[in-house]
Amino acid sequence: MSEEQLAQWLSIIASVFIVFGYFSVSDVRAKLIIMVGCAFFMVHFFMLGAMTAMIMNLVNIFRVGLSIKFHKSMALYGAFIVAYLIAGLVTYEVWIDILPLIASLLGCTGMFLLSGIKFRLFMVVGSACWIAHNIYVMSIGGITTEMFVLTAHLTTIYRLHKGKEANVQKI
After folding, report:
1. How far, in Å, CA of 157 to CA of 165, rounded?
2. What is the pLDDT of residues 130-158, one digit of tens each?
3. DSSP states of 30-92
4. With bands split at pLDDT 50, 70 and 90, how would you rate the model's confidence at 29?
5. How many CB atoms lie within 10 A of CB 5?
6. Residue 164's CB: how many other CB atoms inside 10 A?
């Protein structure tokens, strides 16, 4: 098996973990599963030479892990924003590297500060950034994962919007 094939298999394994994480009914279990997926993506992006994407996944592992105990902490939010910015500056090489940074900043902001439709809109834009990046670096599992995440968020936005319309009609 070539290094390229191994990298793609790692991304597919990562994708499976992320998708299964989304289906877990336990928040803690979901976050732990997603952390494993991020670790596989970290190695995958390293093998592809996509260092900004790799380091964003490393920071994501810590963000997800710490969110288990310190959900909605403004101090952690600020620390992670700074960590993402520093990591992005240190690893930046080409224009495409800005997309994982933008996606990570949006995801962090959405998770710490927003809820409902606003949260999911931030995640949709972040997923779009990851999709564009993953197409550019040819990450099969990355594209698959973000298409799933994008679909899940768009479906939830639709359901939340329909729920709001139904509540308005009852009044």
Report:
1. 12
2. 999 999 999 999 999 999 999 999 999 99
3. HHHHHHHHHHHHHHHHHHHT-HHHHHHHHHHHHHHHHHHHSTT-HHHHHHHHHHHHHHHHHH-
4. very high
5. 9
6. 12
